[in-house]
Amino acid sequence: MQEAFTFSDVLLIPQRSSISSRKDVDTRGRISKNIFLQVPIISSNMDTVTESTMAIAMARCGGLGLIHRYSTIQQETEEVIRVKRAESIVIDEPYTLSPDQTVAQAREMMAHHQVGGLLVVGAAKKLLGVLTTRDLMFQNSSAKKVTELMSKQLITGKPGIDLETAEKLLQDHKVEKLPLVEKNGTLVGLITAKDLRKRKLYPRASKDKKGRLLVGASVGVVGDYLERTAEILKAGADVVVVDVAHGHADHVMKAVETIKKKWPQSEVVAGNVATYEGCRDLAAAGADGIRVGVGPGATCTTRIVTGSGVPQLSALLDTARITQEKDVPVIADGGIRDSGDITKALAAGASSVMLGQLLAGTEESPGWTVMKNGTKYKVYRGMASLAANLSRKQKERGEEDLGEEEVAQIVPEGVEAMVPYRGQVEEVVRQLVGGLRSGMSYCGSKNLEELWKKAKFARITPAGWFESKPHALEK
Ligand code: XMP
User: For 116-156, how does the pLDDT look when each residue is reduced to its tens digit (9 = 90+)?
Assistant: First the structure.
């Protein structure tokens, strides 16, 4: 019988290091063959963890967010679009209004797309004006036409304008939006001052070639999964995540194969698996990245309910061979409780880590904060928990309550709980990355490849783990 260990069963042995500053450590990792991340941290595709707000924050930090699939295709697609439009060098298709639309329609459109300004165009996309929230600020008459309020004194740029010139134009004219127009006045794009500021504010952000933030989105393997894949890819998702609890299954391999055949250029991450054989088969089916983790997650009860799973550190040590053999990165998914676990997961061979619990308490996760005994919390639930199952089924049939018998049929493999409120994602990720940099330098490793080669684990006892944590102190 095989022995298997998890993060708290081991420590990384400190090694001679030539690194004098943590800043010299390069944390770059990967989620899939062609998607590199300056910060190898991914927010999990759970409905209490990642929607567009989280995905935007994660990408700005240099990581990545995966939009969950527990919504309609349209809702998931809209979340992807929000991330892709959150910032870019040039917005190719800015949101537009026609001059005879009303203040009410403009307000609705701004709120829906979460933007502070709209361009007003006439026939053949001829630019007529710019309307911003400032123009609408003291407007009581919602029936008023946009044309009466928009600014018509337009400062525009030519298509292909360089960013320095665009920035100067915005500064000189004290405007926030620079529409790009052809000689004949046709609108072809938009540069915003906000996007230019963000470029400087988040230098490590994960971006595509057009300067848009990277985002992943999830699909299942039955029902409408191909339609969902088509829509999220059309919306600009950079990674498709084929998301199944037991990924080492024939129908999952088939789904991966089908997606890769239909969209050969797409980056497909598949999982979850916990063995080398699972990785080998998913890689053979065409997966560009593999999620490893069966049952380690904070809300998971899979191992208790089914008796199946592999302690996460051993799962990673076993599966990460696939990266050396087939250049397919492994994502360590679940069970990470602090930055030390991130270092251990990467040292075991993973190319990135996926977090649920550590990010669920942040401002950017979906859901409200709740107060309990004077402390702030957020709800965090397993996607196979009873609550998640019920709300999924209710959504499928239009919020209709389920019958008792139907509820009794559900066998949950997860729980619902609360996690302490942790503030902004940026701060949480900064702490985690600081710990990771330090951890890598203890291993004498400047980058991930060095960490993989040099890392040495020591098996520890429960007393060793006890000694590792603060102890013998007055509380
Ligand atoms: P952490 O520990 O970061 O783990 O909260 C997040 C990962 O947990 C997985 N997940 C589940 N696993 N039952 C499970 O067995 C569930 O209900 C469940 N919900 C999420 C998932 O892989 C996630 O990324």
Answer: 889 999 999 999 999 998 888 888 788 889 999 999 988 99
Residue owning tokens 């993989």: 452
Query: What are the helix and strand counts (H, E) for the chain?
Result: 20, 20
Pocket-forming residues, ligand 1, beta carbon under 6 Å: 44, 46, 272, 293, 295, 297-300, 302, 333-336, 354-357, 382-385, 413-414
**pLDDT band at 399, cuts 50/70/90?**
low
Atom of ligand 1 nearest to the CA of 301: 15
Question: What ranges do the domains of the chain cover?
Answer: 7-87+205-468, 96-193
Per CATH, which fold does 7-87+205-468 belong to?
TIM Barrel (3.20.20)
Give dist(CA 399, CA 49) in Å, integer. Answer: 22
Q: Ligand 1: distance of its center to the CA of 356 in Å?
A: 7
Distance 383 CA to ligand 1 centre (A): 7
pLDDT score for 87: 84
Least Cα distance to 185 among 145, 154, 151 occurs for 154
Which residues, listed in sequence order, are joined to residue 376 by a DSSP beta bridge? 371
* Total-model pTM: 0.89
Determine whether 300 is an active site residue: yes
The CA distance from 231 to 208, in Å, is 19
Closest CA to 29 of 38, 16, 20, 17: 38
**What is the C-alpha separation between 13 and 34, in angstroms, rounded?**
32
Strand-pair partners of 96: 119
Look up the CATH number of domain 96-193: 3.10.580.10
* CA angle (128 as vertex; 126, 134 as ends), nearest 5: 140
Angstrom distances, CA of residue 271 to CA of 57, 227, 303: 24, 20, 17
Say whether pLDDT at 400 is over 90.
no
